[in-house]
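Chapter summary example.
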Amino acid sequence: MLVGLRKSRVELSLDDQRALLATLHIRPVLLERNIEAQMQDPLIFTLRLEVENGMITDYSVWKDRALMVGTRLYVPRDKALKREILDKAHCSTFAMHSGSTKMYRTLREHYWWPFMKKEIA
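The structure predicted for these 121 residues follows.
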């Protein structure tokens, strides 16, 4: 059971009264999928190595190995992942089915990929 809890990122500890405490770390599903897709993308692999070796400074790598462009998550050339991001943004309760310009402005705060504006339009 402890192995399963560790894989789920649940931390267990005892307090001073020997009561069991649990801490659960939650990460967004899209972030996890994006990082997995980044690991499969040869271009992103090369960019990550160049960032880690100090060869380029336009990008950064988070501690969880996610490649970032400024403060935005670099989305790899994965059509299914991009479609999921667009669908979530379009169907969000806060989006109110806005137009492509509004959707682009909203998404660019968190994500980046080449030709992003064109693909959203």
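To summarize the output: Residues 1-6 have pLDDT under 50 and may be disordered.
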